[in-house]
Write a structure and sequence with these properties.
- The protein is an alpha/beta fold and 286 residues long.
- It is 50% helix and 10% strand.
- Strands 3-2-1-6-4-7-5 form a seven-stranded parallel β-sheet.
- Helix 5 crosses helix 7.
- The N and C termini lie far apart (67 Å).
Length: 286
Amino acid sequence: MLDSIAIVLVATQHPGNIGSTARAMKTMGLSKLRLVQPEQFPDIQAHTMAAGADDVLENAQVFERLEDALADCRLALGCTARQRGVPLPQYDPRQGSALMLEATRSGTVALVFGRERTGLYNEELQRCQAAVHIPANPGYSSLNLAQAVQVLAYELRMGALAAAEGSQPAPAIAPPGVSLERADSMATQGQVERFFVHLDQTLHDIDFHKGRSPDVVMQRLRRVFLRAAVDTRELRVLHGILADAQRMASLALQSGLHVPTPVRKAEAAAARAAAAAEGDDADASP
């Protein structure tokens, strides 16, 4: 169970916090550390603060983008200190750990932490299916990064020990639309992100936006599909639908049956000219 859980730190500013996180992880039996654009790593301060958890640091993976760090994950939960403008299901540490442990049946899952001062940005939270919030003292809720990791890591270890001993763990409450009964077929974050890229391309190809903000539309569609928790077979069907929509849009542009918005009129004219040139070449063939 614990071997399938990745702790992901996004844009960590102080290398000492990376080392302290490694120490917190190792004390609870966690070993997968992933770093997204750390400001200083590797660094001697990280090893100093790791206090013997050097193996966790040495095996840490470094990524340029959060989506790459989550690509092989079936489930990602973002740790946040406060409510954001991203409407996500929210769990306390015990509920979140139960959900993550249950989801490890399908493969790697991730717990994502943001910057020391500002936490995760909204666009980063949008890559998670749910959020985890530590209900600290509202009058003084100042947990540093490694302390937050320690709280969640402790709950994960207690849940894993309960499962190993055959005692009754806390029930896993899945986000709306996520069925843990079909965990084996859950799409990875990488597969879902490739679908979002295809969806965004298709919306532009069919000239869907017509003056509306593409970013706002995609944010809302991301929420819909993340809430639906599509599996790999469903993704293949959706990709097929998008591919057919793109093909029909291309045919309409070439034939002149579809007149797009001004931004795409030049593209339509170029597509028709290219098609006409191909026809001329064919006519000139012996």
